[in-house]
Amino acid sequence: MPDAPGDLAPTASSHLDHDSLRVLGDALARLDAGFAALPPAPPAAQDAAAADVLAEVADRLRDNFPYFHPLYAGQMLKPPHPVARAAYALAMWVNPNNHALDGGRASSAMEKEAVSQLAAMFGWREHLGHLAGGGTMANLEALWVAGLERGGAVLASELAHYTHARVCGVLGLPFEPVPADDRGRMDPGALEARLARGGVGTVVATVGVTANGAVDPLDRILALRERHGFRVHVDAAYGGYFTLARDLGPGARRAFDALHGADSIVVDPHKHGLQPYGCGCVLFRDPSVGRHYRHDSPYTYFTSGDLHLGEISLECSRPGAAAVALWATQRLLPPVPGGAFARGLESGRKAALELHRRLAADPRFLPAFEPELDIVVWAVRGAAASDCSRLARATFEAAARRDLHLALAAIPARFLGLERAGIAADASAVTCLRSVLMKPEHLDWLDGICGRLSAAADEALAG
Ligand SMILES: *Cc1c(COP(=O)(O)O)cnc(C)c1O
To answer: Which of 139, 210, 248, 350 could form a cystine bridge with 253, CB 3.0-4.6 A?
Structure first.
């Protein structure tokens, strides 16, 4: 062990927030006081061995990329807000279960309030919805309801999240990909041609593609619904919160403004909503779909006639702490246009546009299309597609040696316009660098990011 436990106080070089521990201590005392009338049942003293185990855990956890640092600009990983972390931890002393009101009265009420705020963000005053383990579970639930309401095939863009095909397999629904246009958005012409052949029950629009931030043209998909009659589910697990941003391009803005017309929406508070993992959300526009969940559990619903969240959720036990953390975060940072939270999203998008601009001006790089949200994807130029892939991997590693952590993504060659760039197309996909600039601080760190990237690319190209 490099340091004796207990000798390490936060210092000027601390990167992790220690402050919220003090705030948490005060809040814990306040929570404790609420139960003061109970007969004494003092908690067991801390086992000294637990401190050793925790020190070992801390050492083990050092083996991670520094996701919390602005130079981590790779995958879709955003640190939870300190208030979310503290609220989640505080709730752990009670450990409520939001399956039923018996298991978590306060946290169930907080879940309903927090979820209503998310529904309002999409323009819904009425809705049925709840939190889920994540986007995959939330999408599963939306497609389960879609299958019961409509049946038929489920269509999604070829760039939709890979879990849709798998979830449809679980649900026994046929799944078909729809081609994307050269900017990575579902091609409405291809969709219309498929609809004309019949048998489609549901179209999944991805509002914020995980790989590249493309936004499917939801407004045009909804117009096709008028003529062909199908259900529209919107997978906004990553992108949903961008509806609050005021600086979107016109195509993306039209798609976000159409969100209220969807039949169901999934958004992941654990992606862009500053939450710890284990927090997705599914929303239905028509509350009457609640009838599909009807069941008659003899042992969970005793305490009141109020709605138990377990009556409208596929999962049974769920962490009340996730709801408490989301409620606390939205209390501090309401999800409204122009608020501090929305400005954070705008800042990340500004960083993405600026990084894209600098890459486009640099002869060593070939960026894919201009970012619609906060994801930038670019190739490192080589003589042929396979050279580009090799150079991207080398740049990725050279950047990591300089503490800049990017991601890699295999992108179909047609999104890069290789021919125009004079690059031989000897492969159908090109490994590119990918950066999700989802922290508000990324904008201030852009020079630091670009400087390290430039040095890393020079090393890769020389090697
Ligand atoms: C992340 C993501 C998912 C999957 O959500 P999890 O929370 O990882 O289960 C689904 N769809 C999209 C668009 C995503 O970005």
So the answer is: 248
The token duo for 123 is 């323009």
User: Residue 312's pLDDT band (boundaries 50, 70, 90)?
Assistant: confident
Q: What is the pLDDT of residues 62-103, one digit of tens each?
A: 999 999 999 999 999 999 999 999 999 999 999 999 998 888
**Residue tagged 């590249």 (tokens):** 212
Please tell me the distance between residue 450's alpha carbon and the centre of ligand 1 in angstroms. Answer: 28
Strands (E) in 189-230, as ranges, are 200-206
pLDDT at 8: 65
pTM for this one? 0.95
On whether both 360 and 257 belong to a single domain, the answer is no
Query: Best mutation site among 76, 136, 242 for ligand 1, i.e. most ligand atoms within 8 A of its Cβ?
Result: 136
Q: 120: CA distance to ligand 1 center in Å?
A: 21
Could you tell me the residue range of the domain that residue 423 belongs to? 340-462
Pocket of ligand 1 (CB under 6 A): 134-136, 139, 161, 163, 206, 210, 235, 237-238, 268, 271, 280
> Is residue 300 packed enough to be buried (19+ CB in 10 Å), middle (13-18) or exposed (0-12)?
middle
Bridge partners for 215 per DSSP = 207
Judge whether 38 lies within some domain: no
CB-CB neighbours of 387 under 10 Å: 18
Q: Is the pLDDT of residue 5 over 70?
A: no
- DSSP letter at 19 equals H
Into how many domains does the chain fold? 2
Residue 294's CB is within 10 A of a number of other CB atoms, namely: 8
**What is the per-residue pLDDT for 424?**
96
**CA 419/CA 417 separation, integer angstroms:** 6
Position 432 pLDDT exceeds 50: yes
Is residue 354 located within the same domain as residue 234? no
